[in-house]
């Protein structure tokens, strides 16, 4: 599974990072970024939850 953050949509709420800091981080500007190209299997459910919880719908999982 892969996760991506749409830089145009992200507003830096940090919900993804608070739910799954193993996969998401915040840049120096406060916007989300994905730390790993492939989401480890043990974090897939949490990443899906983070994507669904993003107020800007900036996270895509595939």
User: What is the CATH domain class?
Assistant: Alpha Beta
Distance between the termini: 6 Å
CATH topology: Alpha-Beta Plaits
Q: Largest beta sheet, briefly? A: 2 strands, antiparallel
What would your notes on this structure say?
The structure is a single chain. This protein is an alpha+beta fold and about 60 residues long. It has one domain (about 5-60): Alpha-Beta Plaits. The protein has 2 helices and 4 strands; from the N terminus they run βαββαβ. It has helices spanning about 15-20, 45-55, and strands at about 5, 25, 30-35, 60. Strands 1-4 form a two-stranded antiparallel sheet. Strands 2-3 form a two-stranded antiparallel ribbon. Strand 2 (about 25) and strand 3 (about 30-35) form a beta hairpin. The relative contact order is 0.34.
What is this entry, summarized?
By secondary structure, the chain is α+β, with helices and mostly antiparallel strands. It is built from 2 helices and 4 strands, in the order βαββαβ.
